[in-house]
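Technical note accompanying the year-one report. For the benefit of new consortium partners, we illustrate the data format agreed upon in the data management plan: each record pairs a sequence with a structure-token string. No post-processing was applied to the example shown here.
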Amino acid sequence: MTEHDILDAIGDMDPAYLEEATEKPFVNKRKWIRLVALAACLLIVVMIPLAYRQYIWMYNNLDYASEAYEDCRVYYVKDQALYYESVGIYGGDAEMFEAWRDKNGIRVNAALQGLTVLPKQEDSEEGCTVRVTLSASVKSLFEEADGERLREALKRTIASYREITVDKLELIFV
């Protein structure tokens, strides 16, 4: 006995209803694939700028801290000339600045507030710009006669420590 025979025995049933009930519903798979692909594209469009922004922030505010830099050259001014000494620095930018300050015989309470490496222009052959924020107590040292040599010593020390080419050094005193 088939389904049709049972329906005929029960009563007068239209076979079209039976066929309609036995058909599997049609699912438009293309619609779901398009929706998933659209969601993935939107996620990528949103995440790429956020990831790039995070990368730039980390690159600019990176404080080298985990290794000793035995080959770091700390430059200092002596007899109106620049000299350097290789120093192993354990720690970050603050320790590098302290080594520079000690080598240059700076006795005032000078502290490094921040060091930011600005990315260089893509089409530029020159090095990058470094923005250094220092305590205001050291400002007068950079305004004296040896101020330019002191600035150059700091610029070269940062370049050696960070292993970058520094084209311009911007000093900010707070």
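Partners are asked to follow this layout when depositing records. Residues 64-69 have pLDDT under 50 and may be disordered.
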